[in-house]
Amino acid sequence: MVPLLLVLLLALILFGAGFALKILWWVAVVVLAVWLLGFLARSTNAGGGRSRWYRW
Fold first, then answer.
1. 42 half-sphere exposure, CB direction, 13 A CA radius
2. What's the CA gap between 12 and 44, in Å, rounded?
3. What would the pLDDT profile of 3-20 be if each residue is shown by its tens digit?
């Protein structure tokens, strides 16, 4: 009984990790798209001069 529970627990953990990793990939794609849009918006700055779209 215990090995069966351990196998089920392992399958549940791996399924949860795979689902979380898939969500993290989508988050990474969205962040990359926002970064690219900000980079393009910086290159077409109407104010001129040195400007950054982020604040560090």
1. 12
2. 49
3. 888 888 888 888 888 878
pTM score: 0.55
Query: Degrees (nearest 5) of the Cα angle 11, 7, 1?
Result: 145
Task: Dig out the tokens for 42 from the structure.
Answer: 């910086």
CA–CA distance from 30 to each of 25, 35, 37, 43, 52 (Å)?
9, 9, 11, 20, 20
Listed by start position, the domains of the chain span 1-38
Query: Is the per-residue pLDDT at 32 higher than 80?
Result: yes
